Amino acid sequence: MTEPLTPDPMARLLAALTLSTDGEDTFSGTSLNRPGGRVFGGQVLAQALLAAGRTVPEGRLPHSLHGYFLRPGDAQLPISFGVERMRDGRSFSARRTHAYQNGRPDQPILSMITSFQEEQPGFEHSDRMPAAPPPSELGSAHDLLENIDHPLARFWLQESAFDLRHVEASLYLHPAPEQTGRQMLWMRARGVVPDDELMHRALLAYACDEILLEPVMRRHSLSLTTPGLSVASLDHAMWWHRPARVDEWLLFVQGTPSAQGGRGLGTAKVYTESGSLVASIAQEGMFRVPEPLGETQLVGHTGGHE
Fold this sequence. Notes:
The chain is an alpha+beta fold. It has six helices and 13 strands.
């Protein structure tokens, strides 16, 4: 498998997710450079989660988040994170986090509520993982991107902190041969990740934003090289059911129940290789394919309404 040109893309990502403390319940961070100059939605989502996690009692981990991408962020500017302590109960804590730039908390680029819980016993059940070929039998996205002579492809090849392996045909070069709203893919970190459960959950939030809307594209015969295609994340909901490590293979079982009005909904259930259901995710995105079609470009979606 081709190695990325950046020596350690995961180390670069972890550095970007390291926040400075600016005051009580106020933090700041930087952004990874992205084509187009906008902040990647998954990055600010992960940073907001880490900021909120710094304010909760020890031993409480996030079990759900609900966030809206409200404005595009400038990757050249620092991002501030203000955390509101909404509630601390006997078992649960709730936090609202606003991410903003230019000292304007009244103009957030992300608004998110996260709920945290102490580990507790209780009854259990979960959906079973569907049959899927192991990641060792599938080709890496990095190998496919080698063959694309495009700045965004070179960026992903060099900078991506995750190894992606599609079970069905990928959407990098061409639309899927079958028009379906279902797909499965394996994902694993390309580098060392600290033994920190909060960081692993934040990295899962970061990574899923890269692929969660692909079923919408698959359902409508779109690819990452569809001329003029524009995609932007609008909101994100996530539930963590059990501990998960992003430095171990995770299977995303994805679908899209609906698309209309220039919006499409993507969903995912995330399993470990052993079949444990660790997370459920939903995200709605904006899709635009202008007429007449413009120049061919690779999609690099970011967060924020128009």
